[in-house]
């Protein structure tokens, strides 16, 4: 198919969302946000976390007088009910320079890394546990058989005492113990 001058041509679209609308909410001050919620590494493509929907949103109008969050939805992509987030078109107040933000971010990273353990240290053994573990490691199969043979008479005595029937077959107090198994019958319907 050849292209002729009569063929429709696609209109050049704007690269970014540009609107004159501004949110009625107060401006976001960058100094009041945690430094980890701001990304100013590429100043012309700056992004920050929207405080309402907790998503990363670009800042539009970086070369204009008014910078604001781009309009965005708070729901998931592709959902039928796309609801505009309250933080859309909210103005940004630049009370923080890029070097100040970078310093605040490095300070926050240092503070967070100082709170985290760098190495997991094993719990120290008590002397009794250490002695038991060493004795278990030193046991051989022949030593285990010798230990078992030493315990067998005590086990036989315990079994013998369990098998003895106490004097008298009826408890001193209370009803007689039934000697036949009871099988309850269900009522007929």
Please give a handful of descriptors for the protein shown.
four-stranded antiparallel β-sheet; alpha+beta; 28% helix
Report on the structure:
- It is built from three helices and six strands, in the order ββββββααα.
- By secondary structure, the chain is of the alpha+beta class.
- Among the domains are: 28-113, no CATH class; 130-157, no CATH class.
- A four-stranded antiparallel beta sheet has the order 2-3-4-5, with no helix packed on it. A two-stranded parallel ribbon has the order 1-6.
- β2 and β3 (47-49) form a beta hairpin.
- The longest helix is centred in the C-terminal third of the chain and has 23 residues, at 141-163.
- The protein is elongated.
- The mean pLDDT is 80.
């Amino acid at each position: 198919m050849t292209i002729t001058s009569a063929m429709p041509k696609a209109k050049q679209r704007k690269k970014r969302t540009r609107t004159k609308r501004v949110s009625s909410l107060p401006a976001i001050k960058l100094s009041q946000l945690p430094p980890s919620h701001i990304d100013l590494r590429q100043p012309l493509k700056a992004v920050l976390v929207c405080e309402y929907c907790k998503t990363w949103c670009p800042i539009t109008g970086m070369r204009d007088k008014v910078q604001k969050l781009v309009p965005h939805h708070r729901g998931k992509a592709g959902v039928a009910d796309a609801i505009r987030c309250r933080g859309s078109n909210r103005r940004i107040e630049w009370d923080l320079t890029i070097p100040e933000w970078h310093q605040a971010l490095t300070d926050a990273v240092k503070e967070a890394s100082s709170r985290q353990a760098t190495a997991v240290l094993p719990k120290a053994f008590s002397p009794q546990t250490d002695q038991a573990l060493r004795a278990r490691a030193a046991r051989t199969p022949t030593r285990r058989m010798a230990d078992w043979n030493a315990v067998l008479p005590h086990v036989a005595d315990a079994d013998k005492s369990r098998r003895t029937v106490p004097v008298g077959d009826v408890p001193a107090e209370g009803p007689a113990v039934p000697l036949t198994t009871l099988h309850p019958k269900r009522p007929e319907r």
